[in-house]
Structures are given as C-alpha cells and as structure tokens.
Amino acid sequence: ADVARIAQPALVAVGTTDDIAGSPQKLARLLPHGEAFAIEGRDHMLSVGDRTFKKRAVEFLRAHPLRN
User: Fold this and answer.
1) Residue 48: its pLDDT value, please?
2) DSSP state, 18?
3) Which is higher by pLDDT, 25 or 1?
4) Residues ≥6 apart with Cβ < 8 Å to 53
5) How far apart (Å, rounded) are the C-alpha atoms in residues 35 and 50?
6) 3-state class of 11 per DSSP?
7) Does residue 9 register a pLDDT over 80?
8) Could you tell me the pTM of the whole model?
9) Other CB atoms closer than 10 Å to residue 9's CB: what's the count?
10) Does the CA dihedral 29-34-37-38 come out positive or negative?
C-alpha cells in the first residue's frame, strides 16, 4: 500500500463511536511509524474537540518534534 511509504510519524485518532473512519489500529499498522488512539465515546464529528484527543495530540507532537 502507498501509505507504507509514509516515513513521518503519524497519530491515527478515531472516536470509538465513529461509523465513518473505521479502525485506527488497522491504518496505524500500515504506517511504518503509526500510532493508534481511540477516543472513547466520540463520533466522527466530535473527536477533535475532545479533551483526551487534544492531550494525546500534544504528547505525540512533543514526542516527534519537526526536523528541518
């Protein structure tokens, strides 16, 4: 799959009640540096506003700083 060529770390975050996006684990496994994160009780539209998602996204970005 083409996604296997993505070298950058990627956080795949999906709400547990999301019936659109599918499994974050399935996509994260295809990425060489993919990490899955399930956002409990959130659907497709409410996931990005969730406090646990924001916390996890900041942790992920701190763990993987940009390199020039």
Assistant:
1) 86
2) -
3) 25
4) 13, 37, 39, 42, 47
5) 18
6) strand
7) yes
8) 0.86
9) 14
10) negative
**Is 34 buried (19+), middle (13-18) or exposed (0-12) by CB count in 10 A?**
buried
Q: Any idea where the domains of the chain sit in the sequence?
A: 2-63
Percentage of residues of the chain with pLDDT beyond 90: 79
- Give the DSSP letter of residue 10: E
User: What does the DSSP assignment read for 33-58?
Assistant: TEEEEEETT--TTTSTT-HHHHHHHH
Q: Which amino acid is at 43?
A: D
CB 41 within 8 A of CB 1: no
User: Bridge partners of 35?
Assistant: 11
Beta bridge partners of 12: 36
